[in-house]
Amino acid sequence: MLSTDQLKQRIAATVHKQGPKWWANVRTNIPLVRRDLTELSPRNATTANLCSSGPSITSDIGFGDVFAAPTNYSFLMANEIVPDFLVSVDGSEAQGTILGSPRLDPSTTLLACPYTSPNLVRRASTIYWFHNFIQGPTDNPKSDPFGFNHVHQLLFPELKSWIIQAGCVANAHLIIAHYLAERAIAMYDVVNLNGYDFGYPPYSPITRAPLYISKSDECWTEKPPMGELEDPNTEWKQVTLPNGTRFMTCEIQIAYAHTFFILLQWGIGSRFTINNLSEASLLHAVPQNEWGTSEALKSFRDFIDDQWTHSSSEQEPATTPEVTQ
Predict the structure, then answer these.
(1) pTM of this structure
(2) Is 45 contained in some domain?
(3) Which residues on adjacent β-strands are paired with residue 247?
(4) Does 41 reside within a domain?
(5) In a 10 Å sphere around its CB, with 0-12 CB exposed, 13-18 middle and 19+ buried, how is residue 80 labelled?
(6) H helical segments located in the chain
(7) What is the pLDDT of residues 271-304, one digit of tens each?
(8) pLDDT tens for residues 226-261?
(9) Number of folded domains in the chain?
(10) Contacts with 183 (C-beta within 8 Å, 6 or more apart), sequence order
């Protein structure tokens, strides 16, 4: 299991790999970066519905603000749910392509960082921006080899919002909801998790292909290049949760789930009642009343280490059964 320092190193490695592309995105976005996240009009909703793209994602969403990701936007729209916010912390060109639409609905506000793909930015009519910093506002060459933190401050002095880089948009949802509530821009006191699995049913499409988009390909109008969002060489292994749920996961998904706990340990999300945790979620490996504690993190790491190291790999069936959605 990755330690906190290893997580930071993994993020730094991503920055190093993606740096040139992200800088190209920054240069393109410079004229468009105007309104800071804190300039959002006050929100009246008391519930934030945070939608990740795991297989448990559902269209059964109650009242409140809906936070979407590029990978589930088409699924939500196809089910007549217009997200209030679409969050992007990714510079990949596919972030725009996977929407399945040339434009975001006018009612959807894009929340983006300066290196967000212009292919996504150009599809939005309303955008608010934030710094997605790597380890902290202070410049750190080891964790930020391309100097994003420092140069962003020089290029975009009007941006006051610093949102920690937490590896994936699912975790960014939690951070941004907390950020808005802390600053009384939103009145959130309840968070509903939707699709927060950090894993997938055995033999589901994502364990066999480099890309998984919500539940269905029916919403597509065009597909991104294979391998744009997921490494086709990702090693998937089966894990059995204490409650008996079986699913497939990989190291990066474990890292994202681990980061979720770290965020809670730092106090992010502590102001919320968190509901609707999927039974297929890695987060089920730790009782919810222990979330955010050092003991919970250690327990989770030990559980994953044991599963990852000692679990016997099962042979795939000759024919892959259809996954029940």
Answers:
(1) 0.81
(2) yes
(3) 239
(4) yes
(5) exposed
(6) 4-29, 73-78, 94-97, 118-121, 148-155, 169-182, 251-265, 294-310
(7) 899 999 888 899 998 988 899 898 999 999 888 8
(8) 333 445 566 778 888 888 888 878 888 888 898 899
(9) 1
(10) 38
